[in-house]
Amino acid sequence: AQKITQTQPGMFVQEKEAVTLDCTYDTSDPSYGLFWYKQPSSGEMIFLIYQGSYDQQNATEGRYSLNFQKARKSANLVISASQLGDSAMYFCAMRENRDDKIIFGKGTRLHILP
Amino acid sequence: ETGVTQSPTHLIKTRGQQVTLRCSSQSGHNTVSWYQQALGQGPQFIFQYYREEENGRGNFPPRFSGLQFPNYSSELNVNALELDDSALYLCASSLDRERVKNIQYFGAGTRLSVL
Predict the structure, then answer these.
(1) How far is A103 from chain B (nearest CA, A)?
(2) What are the C-alpha distances in Å from B49 to residues A37, B31, B64, B69, B74?
(3) Are A78 and A64 in contact, with CB atoms under 8 Å apart?
(4) Residue A1 in this model has a pLDDT that exceeds 60
(5) Contact B29/B87 with Cβ under 8 angstroms?
(6) How far is A26 from B108, CA to CA, in rounded Å?
(7) What is the C-alpha separation between B43 and A41, in angstroms, rounded?
(8) CA torsion through residues A26, A28, A33, A39, sign
(9) What is the pLDDT of residues B40-72, one digit of tens each?
(10) Least packed by Cβ within 10 Å: which of A28, A35, A67, A70?
């Protein structure tokens, strides 16, 4: 069963607008971490933001915030005031505490339009 | 910059050959994980090494093997290359596998083409 689902294969957003990238996950482990990574065309996976399953508040890192809805098993990434440099693939990922590997979704390709 | 470096950046091999990919972890990181990313897909976990021992393995055959050295650098070896092994291979290092918040920092990858 797929554990990370990203339903948006591609998105086009106007520069300076906010954008939400969707991610749902599935796990029976009560302790887990959720991650978002950005992958530009160069290939390097860049860590953006982390949310722990027991964290009381939604994570924020600069222009990135994570809309964590635990009951819905949803961990959407919100990018405020998008920039041309935000154009890239974005991956949602999860690590269960009983495991060491990170499981990735299939990604969303984000295009920021000038 | 994550401090994780991989070499080579690109590699072309023929079917049946063997290949070794290398990774230098971020300073102080004792855990390294390897991932295979096929075109248009998310990365798939191959295996992880912690303090020079294999710590977990994904659904990859034994012809995928690895090493971690005392300085925490790492190698991924693939024997008997197949066409489907063509992919971007990513190495990721992390500070401490025991921590709940175990952020993995990735290198830029090695793009392997098998002809």
Answers:
(1) 7
(2) 22, 6, 13, 10, 8
(3) yes
(4) no
(5) no
(6) 28
(7) 15
(8) negative
(9) 899 999 999 988 899 889 999 999 999 999 888
(10) A28
Give the length of chain A: 114
Q: What is the pLDDT of residues A6-35, one digit of tens each?
A: 999 999 999 999 999 999 999 998 989 999
Cα–Cα dist B110/B91, whole Å = 9
What residues in B contact A95, CB-CB < 8 Å? 102
The residue ranges of chain B whose pLDDT is under 50 are none
User: Residue B2 in 3-state DSSP?
Assistant: coil
Ranges assigned E (strand) in B51-106:
53-57, 64-68, 74-78, 87-94, 105-106
* C-beta of residue A67 within 8 angstroms of C-beta of residue A5: no
Longest dimension (CA), chain A: 44
The encoded tokens of residue B115 equal 């002809």
Q: For chain B, how many residues are written?
A: 115
In this structure, which amino acid lies at residue B36? Q
Contact list in A for residue B100 (CB cut-off 8 A) is 31, 33, 52, 97
Whole-angstrom CA distances from B24 to A2, A102, B55, B72 are 31, 20, 18, 7
CB B106 to CB A44 under 8 A?
Answer: yes
> Alpha-carbon distance B2 to B104, whole Å?
10
Looking at residue B3, its amino acid is G
